[in-house]
Amino acid sequence: VCDRALRHRYNGEIGDIVVGRITEVQQKRWKVETNSRLDSVLLLSSINLPGGELRRKSAEDELAMRDYLQEGDLISAEVQSIFSDGAVSLHTRSLKYGKLAQGVLVQVSPSLVKRQKTHFHDLPCGASVILGNNGFIWIYPTSEQKEDEAGGYTANLEPVPLSDREVISRLRNCIVALVTHKMMLFDTSILYCYEASLPHQIKDILKPEVTEEIVLEARQRLLDLEG
Amino acid sequence: MASVVLSEAEKLYIVHGVQEDLRVDGRGCEDYRCAEVETDVVSNTSGSARVKLGETDILVGIKAEMGTPKLEKPDEGYLEFFVDCSSNSPELEGRGGEELGTDIANTLYRVFSCENTVDLKSLCINPKEHCWVLYVDVLLLECGGNIFDAISIAVKAALFNTRIPKVRVLEDEEGTKEIELSDDPYDCIRLNIDEVPCIVTLSKIGYRHVVDATLQEEACSLASLLVSVTSKGAITSMKKVGKGSLDPESIFEMMETGQRVGKLLHIALQKILDEEESLGTSRPKVGFLG
């Protein structure tokens, strides 16, 4: 007999992708909030520096930690290891991880995020989404040029165009709708829900009647896909 | 107030969105979130209401008790407000929530201090001796941004739901007065809430202002204006909160928006209350299980 709670804290497993928020800057590491029982840890030796250079971190790097990541910043990272007390140690030693720029964060229960091969999706509707295993979902505009330069440290501060904003807001509302009906979140379910919501206005998606209608349609399409 | 921490890029995204009249959840600057209002949820009160505005959850209970009128107003009853924020989050337990609670209570006193909001003369039983005192208890169950608006809606709904028993004053030969409570539980007086105002909070984000800010939007706003608006669009009180400053021009614009939005809010609320009323006692109550 197995018991899986519907709403619980995130329990890290090695290799998981998480989205977290920096809560503290300590001596040689950052404390990251990932909706787990204990704050996760991001060691200074586990990050990649701007420009993608790999070198041993010196004392100057230690003093300049706040220039890289400050309190409140959002990062995408992978779980490297787990300490004996259950706290998770993260790393961003790949160019696809790092500080996140403009976008929208949605916090859901970790049990609703389906485990897949990849958690970074560029959806065909025009935005990208990171489905963190810890329940933090990050929706952001798809960048035209590939992130080969900074590894995420130079934040693009230009205003996001209105068309991208509409897609992002619609996706955000669709994810909230799916979560209200306790449906699993993965790229196909989010996409079907998005397409089902197109006839409605973005702000109407959160009305109870409309939510039920589009979630029902998405669920039907998913069943048809399986069967 | 409970607040969230946001990264600079997230705040920038929100501010730019507000400039273009498309907020994170797709609303325009003057749109409210979906609100649920239910009255008569607490059985041992004279009137109660529960309001859910997005994530914000407010419970208001009103108890009518007999007391002595105030010296300066001997032929009127009065209202007393108590606000409890302790169930919201650990940081608001004990002393922390008290400051927020007294702040909200003082704002409510101000809003209701205007002469005609509630007909206080109808609360008088015996001038100088007996009157009805309405103890309004506000419970902040969850803070999801924009608590003042939700609280004012809940107070108005609870006042609408309040039933005060009818009393008769009997005087004997010696002059001692006796108060007789009517036996029929349905024989009661209701309050007229036409003039009760609702608070509209306008938060300044960037160069524009938004109505019904979420916690994330409140984190991006440095200054807000609270206006209490009656159903006819009259502003009864105004309060500025926040560390930032407001331009007098923006204050005028915000007041106008407040009046516009306030009138629509009253119409929507009255519709829900009338619908509930028409269903009568056979209304299915959801309460806390829904």
Automatic annotation (TrEMBL), chain A:
Database matches in PROSITE patterns: S1 (PS50126)
InterPro entries to which the protein is assigned, alphabetical: Exosome_RNA_bind1/RRP40/RRP4, KH_dom_type_1, KH_dom_type_1_sf, NA-bd_OB-fold, S1_domain, S1_RRP4
Name of protein: EXOS2 protein
Localisation per UniProt entry: Nucleus
Keywords: Exosome, Nucleus, RNA-binding, rRNA processing
GO CC terms: cytoplasmic exosome (RNase complex); nuclear exosome (RNase complex)
Family that this chain belongs to: Belongs to the RRP4 family.
Protein encoded by which gene: Exosc2
Chief location: nucleus
Gene3D superfamilies in the record: Nucleic acid-binding proteins (2.40.50.140)
Residues of the S1 motif domain: 15-93
Molecular function terms, GO-annotated: RNA binding
A biological process term (GO) from this entry: nuclear polyadenylation-dependent rRNA catabolic process
From TrEMBL, chain B:
Keywords (A to Z) from UniProt: Acetylation, Cytoplasm, Exosome, Nucleus, RNA-binding, rRNA processing
GO biological process, alphabetically ordered: exonucleolytic trimming to generate mature 3'-end of 5.8S rRNA from tricistronic rRNA transcript (SSU-rRNA, 5.8S rRNA, LSU-rRNA); nuclear mRNA surveillance; nuclear polyadenylation-dependent rRNA catabolic process; rRNA catabolic process; TRAMP-dependent tRNA surveillance pathway; U1 snRNA 3'-end processing; U4 snRNA 3'-end processing; U5 snRNA 3'-end processing
GO molecular function terms attached to this record: mRNA 3'-UTR AU-rich region binding
Residue ranges annotated for the Exoribonuclease phosphorolytic domain, each copy included: 32-165, 196-260
Gene Ontology cellular-component annotations: cytoplasmic exosome (RNase complex); nuclear exosome (RNase complex); nucleolus
Pfam families, per database record: RNase_PH, RNase_PH_C
InterPro entries linked: ExoRNase_PH_dom1, ExoRNase_PH_dom2, ExoRNase_PH_dom2_sf, Exosome_comp_Rrp42_subfam, PNPase/RNase_PH_dom_sf, Ribosomal_Su5_D2-typ_SF
Location within or outside the cell: Cytoplasm; Nucleus, Nucleolus
Family named by the database record: Belongs to the RNase PH family.
Subunit structure: Component of the RNA exosome core complex (Exo-9), composed of EXOSC1, EXOSC2, EXOSC3, EXOSC4, EXOSC5, EXOSC6, EXOSC7, EXOSC8 and EXOSC9; within the complex interacts with EXOSC2 and EXOSC4. The catalytically inactive RNA exosome core complex (Exo-9) associates with the catalytic subunit EXOSC10/RRP6. Exo-9 may associate with DIS3 to form the nucleolar exosome complex, or DIS3L to form the cytoplasmic exosome complex. Exo-9 is formed by a hexameric base ring consisting of the heterodimers EXOSC4-EXOSC9, EXOSC5-EXOSC8 and EXOSC6-EXOSC7, and a cap ring consisting of EXOSC1, EXOSC2 and EXOSC3.
Protein name (database record): Exosome component 7
Species of the source: Sitta europaea
